[in-house]
Specification:
Elements lengths: L9 H12 L5 E2 L10 E3 L4 E6 L1 H4 L4 H4 L6 H24 L3 E6 L6 H12 L1
Parallel strand pairs: 3-4
Antiparallel strand pairs: 1-2, 2-3
């Protein structure tokens, strides 16, 4: 677990490159905001979280699998992660921020991803 990165992950870097190439500027890892969003657009009051499917319990094939070893630990861990994420998103919404969530499995199609992000940011 110590080797698992929470910042500057591969999926996060893909989204950052996509946005930067298209002229968007942002702040990274807003520690002053609940949930420490990966990308913060302060002027627009919008944040983007880039989640790994396994770690945050997405309903895709990769996210819904559970390791065979130490099964109870992993089920509890992912459940706590989902609960923590939901609280952070709710708090951000209450504070007047718009929240977008991008899953690791959504990065395969760059055109669809870009369409979704551009609609969110406009």
């Amino acid at each position: 677990m110590q080797a698992v990165k929470s910042a500057d992950t591969g999926p996060e870097l893909i989204v950052r490159r996509l946005l930067h190439q298209r002229g968007y500027r942002y702040r990274l890892h807003g520690k002053h905001l609940p949930g420490c969003p990966d990308l913060v657009f302060s002027g627009r009051r919008k944040v983007i979280f880039v989640h790994g499917c396994f770690w945050h319990g997405h309903d895709c094939a990769r996210g819904s699998r559970v390791p065979v070893n130490n099964r109870n630990y992993w089920v509890g861990k992912v459940s706590r992660n989902k609960e923590r994420d939901n609280k952070a998103h709710a708090m951000l919404t209450e504070m007047g921020w718009s929240v977008a969530l991008i899953w690791e499995c959504e990065l395969k199609n760059a055109d669809d991803l870009w369409q979704r992000i551009s609609r969110f940011l406009e």
